[in-house]
């Protein structure tokens, strides 16, 4: 059973669980399903934000709990990402909540790093709620719009889940390509300093 089938079968419960663990792909597909009127757009937006919010609170709490402990012996592969995030968090604590949400591969690790950095729980709770609402709406809208564009260009049946899946994969591929280019460009710029 594919992710799109799971979302179709379990609806907003699938969106809730998916955004807790993963996020972007689930919301992109939910946007496609909302375009097809299989899911409610507003429901997917709010439930997607809730799933991400709960997930981020859990990961933030993990960071707070493990602060001062040997965290990297537990999850060593996160060490380079957390070490890159900590200076940003220390320099721009509030802004870092937003920035880490949108950096590819940093959403979950960023929440852990914010906890490790010792940010106030009330600051994180308040700002993260706003952040998750914005993030959920943005990613969902991209999935919705990409599906609308693809269905206008492709000769497929109006309710084709395969088309939605293809559109989401193509959109993710394009975003991955763009983010990779920007990241390499930024790294080259920093290397030249």
Write structural notes for this entry:
The structure is a single chain. This protein has 193 residues and is mainly alpha-helical. It has a domain of 130 residues. Helix content is 82%, strand content 0%. It contains ten helices and no strands. The longest helix is centred in the C-terminal third of the chain and has 33 residues. The mean pLDDT is 83.
Q: What is the alpha-carbon Rg in Å?
A: 18 Å
Shape: globular
Task: Give the number of DSSP strands.
Answer: 0
Strand content: under 5%
Main sheet attributes: strand count, strand direction, barrel closure: none
Question: Fraction of residues in helices?
Answer: over 70%
SS-derived structural category? mainly alpha
- Taking pLDDT < 50 over at least 5 consecutive residues as the criterion, the unreliable ranges are none
- Average pLDDT taken over every residue: 83
Tally of DSSP helical segments: 10
Name the descriptors.
single chain, about 190 residues, mainly alpha, about 80% helix
SSE arrangement:
Elements: H1 3-10, H2 12-21, H3 24-35, H4 41-66, H5 71-74, H6 79-91, H7 93-102, H8 107-117, H9 121-153, H10 161-191
Helix pairs in contact: 1-2, 1-3, 2-3, 2-4, 3-4, 3-9, 3-10, 4-8, 4-9, 6-7, 6-8, 7-8, 7-9, 9-10
Summarize the structure.
The chain is globular and about 55 Å long.
